[in-house]
Amino acid sequence: MSAPVVVEIDDPIALVTLNRPHKLNALSYELVDALMAALDRLEVAPDVRAVILTGAGDRAFSAGADIHQFSQSVPLGPNTAVRDFVRRGQAMTARLEAFPKPVIVAVNGLAYGGGCEITEAAHLAIASDRAMFAKPEINIGMPPTFGGTQRLPRLAGRKRALELLLTGDPFTAQQALNLGLVNAVVPHDELLSAARGLAGRILRHSPLAVRSVITAVTRGLNVSIGEGLQVESEQFAAMVPTHDLGEGLAAWMARRPPAYIGR
Predict the structure, then answer these.
(1) Rama region for 155: left / alpha / beta (φ>0; ψ in -120 to 50; rest)
(2) Catalytic residue among 137, 227, 234, 247
(3) Of 43, 97, 117, 163, which is the active-site residue?
(4) pLDDT per position as a tens digit, 42-96
(5) How many CA atoms lie within 13 A of 113 on its CB side?
(6) Dist CA 132 CA 116 (whole Å)
(7) How far apart are CA 2 and CA 178, in angstroms?
(8) pLDDT of 211 above 70
(9) Pairing of strands 132-134, 171-172
(10) Mean pLDDT across the chain, nearest whole number?
(11) Does 190 participate in catalysis according to the annotation?
(12) Phi and psi of 55, rounded to 5°?
């Protein structure tokens, strides 16, 4: 059997592919576990500075949870269903959200349910003009469980999010752009090149500064503005003794490109 997640490293970018195209890249327990393991490896890989996450095939990024597998957990009761399904999915999206290297989702097709929640959690997202999104959990009698009731309202606003969550209606890539769910919509054949281009614009900068920005934004979104400003201050203080900040300042004053080393 093929691996449920495939990782290809082209320094300094890792392309991570959800690899169940025959199941529209549905998020089985095994796929989620494999994605978590891949992220663990990529976090400590010194040559990897950004991650692009996409789906295998032309039909779907991910059509959501593997309902056939999940339905076997439900009869075992709330404790088992929450442990096997909810905690696993929430850990995955939280891991993506807090990952210290930029994660760019390249949405190549359907992003329903859990696929949409991955897109919500990732730092950045670019969608193919063929992509479609939906929050369809209401259609099977349940709320989203991988963070969709929390992240989508923060991105799109309460009323717009509730309309999508309560109707389950699909929405287009352009609507996702208007909601703030993705950063750009591009022709399908240009999707990965656009994602790589976005990554390249980030990789010009200090990897320590990139990590600091991600940390400050991720932590700050979930606290008061006062606490968020303290997080921001702490992230700046951590940069003060680094080579990269000194180099950035020296390069700016000398009007030359900086040479960051990530220390």
Answers:
(1) alpha
(2) 137
(3) 117
(4) 999 999 999 999 999 999 999 999 999 999 999 999 999 999 999 999 999 999 9
(5) 23
(6) 9
(7) 36
(8) yes
(9) antiparallel
(10) 97
(11) no
(12) -120, 150
